Amino acid sequence: MRLALLTDLHANREALAACLEHARAQKADRYAFTGDFVGYGADPAWVVDTVREYVAQGAIAVQGNHDLSVTQPTRPQMHMEAREVIEWTRGRLDREQLDFLAGLPLTAELDKHFFVHASAHEPQRWAYVDCAEEAEKSLKAARGARIVFSGHVHAPALYRRADDGRMGSHVPLPDVRIPLAPQHQYLVLPGAVGQPRDGNCAACYAIYDDATRELTCFRVPYDHGAAARRVIAAGLPIVFAMRLIEGI
Question: Lower Cβ count inside 10 Å, N or C end of the chain?
């Protein structure tokens, strides 16, 4: 199975379409979407409908914090601009789309693979897995899974918990196949499709091949200028257009 891993789509139609086309060319035969389908971007309905179509065909999808927020009163922890987009997004989704987001699980499992938007340790708290300590907590909470796939941090990273308990981390390079040893446990952050924040505006996603046990991360150029113009045309905060252009 060649599993395409896409996270943090953030209502970015251009980025998602480019990544899905790229994944098809890479012969992905299953898809996993690890949350935050809405928020920040200007095309929430198209993105939600696209994810729904893939789920209907057998894809895995879990809920992100923006997906939850759009289905209930906005959390005060969100900064003002993000709350503005969430409130705008509610008015662009119909009942079926909102029900789909509300009904998504926080976690999913497939064989020895575990899927979650943030951390497997108390996933409802939306903790950022941005260091080895947080990665270890997530891996220990993942009910014996050998690989945890998540998102939320908007930058690609790979953490390894060796069979002796030692932790290591690595920033994967694009298009480089990384073998994952069966005796170790891994946490994979494929980076954001819809709003990368590592200084590179190209969309991120990854493919895991369970036959060869290889992970490959990809950077997919797309028309980020068009996506940014959609944000501005929708009247959303300009900071979210600038993030698409600058990749931060």
Answer: N
pLDDT tens digit string along 19-47? Answer: 999 999 999 999 999 999 999 999 999 99
**C-alpha to C-alpha distance for 85 and 36, rounded to whole angstroms:** 13
Domain ranges of the chain: 2-246
In this prediction, residue 74 has a pLDDT band, given cuts at 50, 70 and 90, of low
CATH class of 2-246: alpha beta
| Token code pair at residue 48 | 């939600």
Angstrom distance (rounded) from CA 186 to CA 114: 10
Place of tokens 């309905």: 45
* Site of tokens 């009904």: 103
What mean pLDDT is reported for the chain?
96
Task: Kindly indicate the confidence band of residue 248, based on its pLDDT and cuts at 50, 70 and 90.
Answer: confident
Q: Under a CB-based contact definition with an 8 Å cutoff, are residues 165 and 209 in contact?
A: no
The values of phi and psi at residue 203, to 5°, are: -65, 150
- Round to whole Å and give the CA distance between 242 and 229: 10
CA distances from 179 to 3, 5, 186, 208 (A): 15, 16, 11, 10
The alpha carbon of residue 64 and the mean position of all alpha carbons in its chain are separated, in whole angstroms, by 8
How is 211-231 classified by DSSP, letter by letter? Answer: TTTEEEEEEE---HHHHHHHH
CA angle 19, 124, 17 (to 5 degrees): 10
pLDDT, residue 73, reads: 76
Q: What is the pLDDT of residue 76?
A: 57
Q: How far is CA 62 from the centre of its chain?
A: 9
Q: What backbone torsions phi and psi does residue 108 show, to the nearest 5 degrees?
A: -145, 155
